[in-house]
Structures are given as C-alpha cells and as structure tokens.
C-alpha cells in the first residue's frame, strides 16, 4: 500500500489546508480574528471536503495493507495442514494490486464500494480537523512578533507537530473503528461488523476500552512530522514560488 499511501497523502493535506483557509476567510468578519467556534467550523468544513475526495484512496490503501495480512494467515494455515513429508510445493498467490481491488469493488458494489466506511472516516477526519486547525493557529500565533508577519518556519513546524499528534491521539478510537469497517476480508475468527455502533460494541465487549487506542503512539509519531512539514511548506509559500516559475499564459 505504499504507492497508494503516497498518492493519498499529497492531495489529503493540500485539500485540508486549502479548504481550511477558504472557510476561515469566509467566516471572518472584515478580516478580524476568528472566534474559537468559527475556527472549529472552518476545520469541520476542511475535514469534510478532504474526506469526500480521498476516501476511495484511503479504502484502497487499507485493502492493500490488509491483503498481506490475510495472505500470511492462509500461508501459515496451509503449512500447518500439509503433511511433513512428500508435501507438494505451496502455490504462490499473485500479489493483489490497487487496480484489481478497484475493479472488483466497482464490479460488485459500484461507486458505493469505494466509499465503504465513509461515515467512520467522517467521524475520524472531521473531529481531527476541528481539533487540529484551531490548536495549530493559536500555537503558531505564539511565535509571531507582529500579527502581520508570519511566524518563523520552526514555529510553524513545531506547532504542526504538537497540534497533529494531539489531534491524532484524540481521534484514534475513530480510526480503529474506520479501519475495522473498511476491511473487506476477515482473518480467522475475526468479527464482522454491520456498522459503526455494532463495531464499537463488539470491540468494547471483546477487547476492552484499551483496544480503541491501539496504535495511538505510532499514529502520533507519524502525524506529527507529516503535519509539521506540510505546514512549513504551506506557510513559507513554496508552492506559490514553484507556480511562479511556470510559464505565464498570455491572453
């Protein structure tokens, strides 16, 4: 799933940051400072826009990562059941690709198949943006000597790291639920889920509350530098600089 993950990260962060700026601009009154509620509403809008565009890629990423786990389970079971002597060579299964998964989903479930788990994804990414953007904005302001001057790049980086890791841990339970719902194939003795509430209930009953924070530490470590770098690139204006290098269209 590395290729799909790489394809997912760039538009996800670009859409989220650009949409947040758009909503902040339109929610501000005459360029005045936004209230906390309006900052949260802007984050909500940014998260919603990003989810609508990137959910299919997120779905494919999970399926590709899941395929390796399922294949390993099948290989282990086959090895345990095979005779110790004179056993035939194991059949090597072809690797599952993103194209194969996409075709199968479209064939069996249509466009809706690519949006499986949309509700759970909204449940994760919208609260993430509601926490992240107001927290980042206020942390970043601490490094501004003047309201009209941008904060130093290291302040934006550290603000993105702190805000990203905090938001990631806060919404980790939603991420666990989303991942379980978007897994099309189940391993041996794994539960199936009919929806968000059913998934939440089964995880709570069978694995306990701590299951909702599985991977929270690793997720925070990944999200922190990811958003730190994204905010530095966005605030320094590297994208605008690169766009200026392109040949101008003459009317």
From TrEMBL:
Ranges for the Solcar repeats: 34-142, 151-240
| Coiled-coil ranges per UniProt | none
The UniProt catalytic activity note for this protein reads: L-glutamate(in) + H(+)(in) = L-glutamate(out) + H(+)(out)
SUPFAM superfamilies, per database record: Mitochondrial carrier
Q: Which GO terms describe its cellular component?
A: mitochondrial inner membrane
Segments spanning the bilayer are 220-243
Q: Which GO terms describe its biological process?
A: malate-aspartate shuttle
Query: A Pfam family this protein belongs to?
Result: Mito_carr
Q: How does it sit in the membrane?
A: Multi-pass membrane protein
Localisation: Mitochondrion inner membrane
The protein's GO terms of the molecular function aspect are:
L-aspartate transmembrane transporter activity; L-glutamate transmembrane transporter activity; symporter activity
Q: Which key words are in the record? A: Membrane, Mitochondrion, Mitochondrion inner membrane, Phosphoprotein, Repeat, Symport, Transmembrane, Transmembrane helix, Transport
What functional role does this protein have? Answer: Responsible for the transport of glutamate from the cytosol into the mitochondrial matrix with the concomitant import of a proton (symport system). Mitochondrial glutamate/H(+) symporter. Responsible for the transport of glutamate from the cytosol into the mitochondrial matrix with the concomitant import of a proton. Plays a role in the control of glucose-stimulated insulin secretion.
Name the protein family: Belongs to the mitochondrial carrier (TC 2.A.29) family.
Q: What is this protein called?
A: Mitochondrial glutamate carrier 1
| Organism listed in the record | Crypturellus undulatus
Taxonomy of origin reads: Eukaryota, Metazoa, Chordata, Craniata, Vertebrata
Gene transcribed to yield this protein: Slc25a22
